Amino acid sequence: MLNTFLQFYVDHQWLALPLAMLSAVGVGILWMGWLTLMLTAFGQRLWLWGFAILLLPVPASQCFALRHPTMNPWANRLVMWGLLISLPMLVLTGWWAWVALTQPSPVP
User: Fold this and answer.
1) What CA–CA distance (Å, rounded) separates 46 from 7?
2) Cβ contacts of residue 74 below 8 Å, gap of 6+?
3) So where does this one cross the membrane (predicted)?
4) Are 60 and 53 in contact (CB under 8 A)?
5) Each residue of 28-73: pLDDT tens digit?
């Protein structure tokens, strides 16, 4: 399966490299949003939310951003935009994984 992933990435570099760079920018934006939302939660003494964002940043930060939209609106936008920018690479990697898992294994 790993060989299938690597072969597909090597054969389709024209698609994989720009999406990987875009995904890296998205993850950086997400990280800034996670950190800011975690500090906001701890600053407002919302300990459960702060620890949830610290331990499970992806689902907890989006839930916190949707639950408390007025607490730190620009950090909420950072998290949502970062996720949106990272999404194409995540979807494409998931699709490649599905294709690799559904192909029959080569017999040596």
Assistant:
1) 46
2) none
3) 12-34, 46-66, 78-98
4) yes
5) 998 999 999 999 999 999 999 999 999 998 889 889 988 998 999 9
Q: Is 63 exposed, middle or buried (0-12, 13-18, 19+ CB in 10 A)?
A: middle
Number of neighbouring beta carbons within 10 Å of residue 50:
20
Contacts of 95 (CB under 8 A, 6+ apart): none
Handedness of CA 29, 31, 32, 33 (dihedral sign): positive
Domain extents for the chain? 20-102
H or E stretch covering 2:
helix 2-11
Burial degree of 6 (CB within 10 A; 0-12, 13-18, 19+):
exposed
Contact at 8 Å (CB) between 63 and 41? no
Is the CA virtual torsion 18, 88, 15, 34 positive or negative?
positive
